[in-house]
UniProtKB/TrEMBL annotation:
Gene Ontology MF term list: efflux transmembrane transporter activity
Lineage: Bacteria, Pseudomonadati, Pseudomonadota, Gammaproteobacteria, Methylococcales
Family the entry assigns: Belongs to the outer membrane factor (OMF) (TC 1.B.17) family.
Identification of the protein by name: TolC family protein
Pfam family, one: OEP
Length: 440
């Protein structure tokens, strides 16, 4: 076997074993990123007449277009992580010496040289590159999680809005029904000559107002249903009503426990991952200051005497002028900037938590006040005046006034309940979980 053939054999063997000398064990392990492999997908056609919160959230999670777009970004970051771990390609050089020499026989050249060169990255460049790409994937994961909990919180708030609007529509229907009864009663009294016809005109105005309020409540209910259905690209006609317990109020956990859970907030975790990414990018820039080594292995075959020689060489840049000083300085400044942004995020979410908690605490107190004092008093006053009116002790104006007061109190109570549950959804979004975990 000629020296040239032996050289080519050595090149092939070297190229076979070379990648395994520099591949880290992580390349051979499976990706640690969890895939969403949910097999049960809910469709809008399976909702039924009564939509529950769980169904609404499942539809949103499955079909919301924004979440689908974020899923594609995560897959793109995973592809970049794969690309970051790839080795540089080898380079094959082929040269013919004394080209087109008329005296040469068998080939238009006096010698043929084949050379294979391979760049070997030094200073941990590849590991730093993989680390930065993996950190970028983690940031994308947390960006998705932030958007997911935000959209689910907004969908929950939209569901609560529908539940509240539905209750308002029912209350408006009750008010209209009661106004119709009052009109009938007064009309009979006018026919009997017991009250003035002016009283009938007055209650007719009240009836018209109740009809207008009912139509307005039904329109608001329809609009809120469409707003909710938009979270999964559906239609409000897919469900007739929503089912839920608006009056279910649970004690709030302590602010101390919520502050502890805030450490796992998706927003905070995202910026911690971004800080890790900037640190990895700094390591990558620092590694670029170390020059890479190029190994060359080849052989030359002389055609005139059929001799062959092997060629071995290395090359390495001399870091005399460019040691990536600018890249390192820029990466350090980006790291400082991210650290400052992380501190700002900590302060912002702490302030937001305290503000939401104070609103919820005040809403709980307001709801209790309506339950224990306002609603019982308004109901008692209305019943007493209604009974007294039948006995001639109160005027019609007193009946209408206490009726209006009672229904206004009920409407305000519903608004307080709606605001409370929407505030809970906002708190769930901030901490990235359910406030009352034990009740789930």
């Amino acid at each position: 076997m000629s020296i040239f053939s032996k050289t080519l054999t050595v090149i092939r063997r070297l190229w076979v074993i070379l990648p395994f000398c520099v591949l880290p064990s992580s390349v051979f392990s499976e990706s640690s990123h969890p895939e969403n492999t949910a097999e049960t997908v809910i469709s809008s056609s399976s909702i039924g007449d009564n939509l529950t919160l769980q169904q609404a959230l499942a539809l949103t999670l499955t079909h919301n277009p924004t979440l689908v777009a974020f899923s594609a970004e995560i897959r793109a970051r995973e592809a970049l992580t794969l690309q970051a771990g790839l080795l540089p390609n080898p380079v094959l050089n082929a040269n013919a010496g004394n080209f087109a020499n008329a005296t040469a026989k068998g080939f238009d050249g006096d010698s043929v040289t084949l050379q294979l060169s391979q760049l070997i990255e030094l200073g941990g460049k590849r590991a730093a590159r993989i680390e930065a790409a993996a950190a970028g994937r983690d940031v994308a994961d947390w960006d998705y999680e932030i958007r997911r909990v935000t959209i689910l919180a907004h969908a929950t708030q939209a569901f609560i809005e529908v539940l509240g609007a539905q209750a308002h529509a029912e209350l408006a229907a009750q008010s209209l029904k009661l106004a119709q009864k009052v009109v009938e009663t007064v009309a009979n009294q006018v026919k009997a000559g017991k009250v003035s016809p002016v009283e009938e005109t007055r209650v007719n105005v009240t009836l018209a107002t109740a009809k207008s309020a009912k139509l307005r409540a039904e329109r608001e209910w329809a609009v809120s249903k469409q707003t909710l259905a938009a979270f999964w690209g559906g239609s409000a006609s897919a469900f007739a009503t929503v089912r839920g317990d608006l009056e279910r109020i649970e004690p709030l956990p302590s602010i101390e426990s919520l502050n502890h859970r805030l450490k796992q907030s998706p927003t905070l975790r995202r910026w911690l991952s971004e800080l890790s990414r900037q640190q990895a990018l700094l390591h990558s820039e620092q590694a670029k200051a170390i020059p890479d080594l190029t190994v060359k292995l080849g052989g030359t075959h002389f055609l005139d005497n059929q001799d062959s020689v092997a060629n071995v060489g290395i090359s390495i840049p001399l870091p005399v002028f460019d040691r990536n000083q600018g890249g390192i300085a820029a990466a350090e400044r980006h790291l400082d900037k991210t650290d400052a942004e992380l501190r700002a995020v900590r302060f912002r979410i702490d302030s937001e938590l305290n503000a939401i908690y104070q609103r919820l605490d005040a809403a709980q107190a307001e709801i209790e006040n309506y339950r224990l004092t306002i609603l019982p008093s308004a109901q008692s006053a209305y019943q007493a005046v209604q009974k007294g009116y039948r006995l001639g002790k109160f005027a019609l104006l007193d009946v209408l006034d206490t009726q209006r007061t009672l229904f206004n109190a009920k409407a305000q109570y519903l608004r307080a309940l709606t605001a409370y549950h929407q505030g809970l959804a906002d708190l769930d979004r901030l901490i990235g979980g359910t406030v009352n975990e034990d009740s789930q």
